[in-house]
Amino acid sequence: MVAFANGRFTEALIQNTIQVLALPIYSIGLGVNPGLVGLAISLPRLWEAFTDPYIGYLSDNFRSKYGRRKPFMVVGVILAGLFYALLWSPPAGMGSTVVFLYFLIISLAFYTAAAVYLVPYYALGNELTSDPQLRAKLMTFCAVFISVAGLMTPWAYSLSFIPYFGVNEIEGVRVIGIIGGTLIIITGMLPCLMCKEQVTAQTQPKFHFMSALKNAFKTRPFVILCSVYILGLFGILLVSPLAFYVGTYYMFDGDKAAMSKLYGWLGSSWALTSILSSPFIYWLIKRFEKKAVLIASLVLVLIGQASQWWLFTPSNPYLSIISFVLSSPGIISLHIIIYSWLADVCDYDYLQSGLRREGLFSAVYGLVVKSAFALAIFCSGIIISIAGVNTGQDAIQSPEVILRLRLLFSIVPPVVIVIAIAVAIGYPLTKKRMAEIQQTLEQRESASV
Prior knowledge:
The two termini are 29 Å apart. This protein has one domain: Growth Hormone, Chain: A. It has 17 helices and no strands. 80% of the residues lie in helices and 0% in strands. By secondary structure, the protein is mainly alpha-helical.
């Protein structure tokens, strides 16, 4: 479990540091329009979303002495680490258009490599155990490793100001990129080396891509699962880049260095709370229905997000940590339960189809979720531009702009989370239903021996 969970540390580095660094480095530091920065992040995610199902299909149908998943994972994680380092080394002395194109092209390469690693990795996790409780335990381990990475990634921007790394954050982030790329390769290789694949799945007949893709979208529990996850996080992702602008220009009157330190503490408090709450979340999952735990978690996130209107205040900026501490257990619970549900859905599909298609379901899940998140990231850049935010090293924001940012930051997430709760109520795979599915599958496998 620990070896597999290291891959989630890798995933967190891949996903989260870009969210932390992209706008501060490319928009505030290098003067690229925030809408273009959002486009440079969202287009590769959209590309990755549509390539994910095909990568999952290739992995499900791949046959080798090293397994179906590991060959893809090894190639993907090495390339992802290399492209990550390049991502934070833009050409010096170039105009904003050239810098934008560089960021876009390297992002496309980086996210493609990341998909080659992550899609088979997700599928491998779905195959490790058929026990729903062990799946929840595995996802709890994964949540802890995600949170450990979360202790580090929020400090990436602050660390780029270290004088030893360079004269400013633009030079310093090059060193951060090399360190991050190295960590991606090292941690990402551990599941490749230490986790075992299912042997029986390698002997199953190959299946057709398009028919399997259609069946995935017809699987009701899968559609609900994707919808809940997207809605639970969409509003937060849509406005999360605004946190840096609200903090910098509302709480710290334009002091980027001061906000970078608070940003680090916000992320670390989020991650530390996630680590401490994960065992309690697992305890709740063992004793209650996952759906009930999930709904309670979303309510907690709603409270935390709404509180940001009062807690992000210039009179005491560090009060903002409270809102992150409130939201953190709910978000980590969402991750644990959704990925546990995804493995349950794969068993549900196996019962219906007789095929192990973890790779395809993981990939289609990635397609839907990443498309939605790409849209959220793109729209966040557009929102920042429409709000009238000025960019550049010494930009100043008007009170009207700051008010617009604060309203969006505090209102959008709670509204979307309410919709997520309504959708989650209809999820059908209860503990009782999963026990029936497992019993039927065991009887089928015993009869085939």
